[in-house]
Write a structure and sequence with these properties.
single chain, 17 helices, globular
């Protein structure tokens, strides 16, 4: 099988992820305008978080981190990859059906675990109602995630990357319809979630079928390969559980401060734009690539893939992080300040955005370093590191909450992210040269950092010169376009001058 072009694959996934994130912003703009930071908004955020939390735990987390390396190596060696994928699909589907039924019964306890601060008001019953409707989404999206893993392992990235676009289209359309017809917008959104899951599953199932992998569920059976998959997945599942504990701690802290869950949710959406475009692209492409290189005994190419992924991550992430830190207020104002979402909500959300900005590079670099472990079927080390990061997150979130309120959750998340990167980097030193950053990466990283800081200064000066235009109705939209355009132009111009980025290098990478 031909080796996929690494940077081109990053850009393919990044393009579709960007499209999804842009549509996600449209969705969240309408969401904030129609529901503000009120009870229905916060209840839906919790309800939608539940299936997504378990999805990351079962499918995109533990299961795929174990499944993709094993499946990729079977594709490389020709050892019945189709049969293995069918068995894995059947096993995963049976677990998810049981989980979905159990969640319907225990939904009040699940909501309490996510946001105990809701228990004293109307948000609790709303979240339970919405949660029961939305939770079956996990069944459809988790099977879609496995099919996406199959497609990514054989170098077909477009369909899997495009699937999340459908979610945002369905949710956005539903809100507009509900607003125009007078329907309950919160409840309509809850029903739209599983419908979107079915659409996503249909898209990737069809793509996998065209790729020669028609995966139809059958009665599950515990084969030796599935036992091995379970053994490898178990530590990754525990690590995924640790990550979800971090999210739970943050939401628990926020649930005691009115409106804060929505503030953190919208701040999360903003920093997830660069995180999604870059980190998801790297995670999707790099893991199967490293797994194939290890199977073929090609350590040099594996190291090159890791280093070029790191460069790609920093090139787009560091300037985005600087922008989130220095201009969060205009960004949030233009995106969300309308309808029921007022200026005080903007200020509160912008503070969270700036804090997340400091942590953004760490979240992306985790996606560069984690595949070094997963490609070697080592899921235990990341679990140990995640435990340490969890302790740091909990101490900071709970300890700082009485002092800085809901912002403690954002501070804890960013600090834990950097702790995880440090632990992953130190742990990879025992993997030899294949896991080391080369001279080119170190040189590029320093230049990218310098160009990003220079861009930050340009943004600060431009923001000062634009002044009140950034907050004046009718002018804030073009003013923000000018601000962002000047910042982006200055970054790429400075990067070109100091050798942090070259269009020639990009063209050569796309031709490899």
């Amino acid at each position: 099988m031909a080796r996929p072009r690494l940077i081109k694959s990053f850009l393919t996934v990044g393009f579709w992820t960007l499209a999804s994130r842009v549509l996600g912003f449209v969705r969240d703009i309408l969401f904030a305008a129609y529901l503000g930071a009120g009870p229905a908004a916060e209840a839906f955020v919790i309800a939608f978080s539940l299936p997504n939390m378990f999805r990351r735990f079962f499918a995109e987390g533990a299961f795929n981190m174990a499944f993709i390396p094993m499946f990729s190596k079977k594709v490389e060696s020709g050892e019945q990859p189709l049969e293995f994928a069918r068995d894995a699909l059947s096993g995963l589907a049976s677990i998810l059906i049981v989980l979905t039924v159990a969640a319907q019964v225990f939904m009040p306890w699940l909501v309490f675990a996510m946001a105990s601060g809701f228990s004293a008001d109307a948000r609790f019953d709303l979240a339970v109602d919405y949660g029961r409707i939305a939770f079956p989404y996990i069944l459809f999206i988790s099977i879609a995630a496995l099919l996406s893993g199959v497609l990514n392992s054989v170098g077909r990235f477009a369909a899997a990357a495009a699937a999340p676009v459908l979610l945002n289209i369905v949710l956005t359309t539903t809100m507009v319809w509900a607003a125009q017809t007078g329907a309950d917008i919160g409840r309509a959104l809850a029903w739209a979630v599983p419908v979107a899951g079915i659409a996503q599953l249909a898209l990737v199932w069809r793509a996998a079928d065209r790729a020669g992998f028609r995966l139809i569920p059958r009665i599950p059976k515990m084969t030796p390969e599935l036992k091995r998959l379970a053994i490898i997945a178990a530590p990754a599942a525990l690590a995924g559980g640790v990550v979800q504990v971090n999210l739970l701690v943050g939401r628990q802290v926020a649930s005691f401060f009115e409106g804060s869950i929505q503030y953190l949710n919208l701040a999360d959406r903003l920093y997830q734009l660069p995180l999604g475009v870059v980190a998801i692209a790297i995670g999707v492409v790099l893991l199967p690539e490293l797994s194939r290189r290890l199977q073929a005994g090609d350590g040099a190419q594996g190291r090159d893939a890791m280093n070029r992924a790191g460069e790609f991550a920093l090139l787009l992430t560091l300037p985005a992080a600087v922008a989130l830190v220095v201009i969060p207020q205009p960004l949030i104002s233009v995106l969300f300040e309308r309808g029921k979402f007022g200026s005080q909500d903007v200020a509160a959300t912008a503070m969270a955005v700036a804090i997340y900005g400091f942590g953004l590079p760490s979240f992306v670099m985790q996606k560069v370093l984690q595949p070094l472990y997963f490609a070697r079927e080592d899921t235990r080390s990341p679990f140990r590191f995640a435990l340490i990061a969890m302790v740091i997150n909990a101490i900071l979130a709970i300890g700082l909450a009485p002092v800085i309120g809901y912002m403690a959750a954002a501070v804890a998340t960013s600090a834990a992210g950097w702790a995880m990167v440090l632990l992953l980097w130190r742990g990879a030193r025992g993997m030899g040269n294949a896991a080391k950053f080369d001279h080119r990466f170190i040189q590029k990283a320093a230049r990218i950092g310098l160009a990003s800081l220079a861009m930050g200064l340009v943004l600060i000066v431009t923001k000062y010169l634009l002044g009140d235009l950034l907050t004046t109705a009718g002018w804030r939209y073009p003013a923000l376009v000018v601000l962002v355009s000047v910042g982006a132009a200055s970054y790429f111009a400075i990067s070109q001058m100091i050798g942090a980025f070259s269009f020639g290098d990009l063209r050569r990478s796309l031709k490899r």
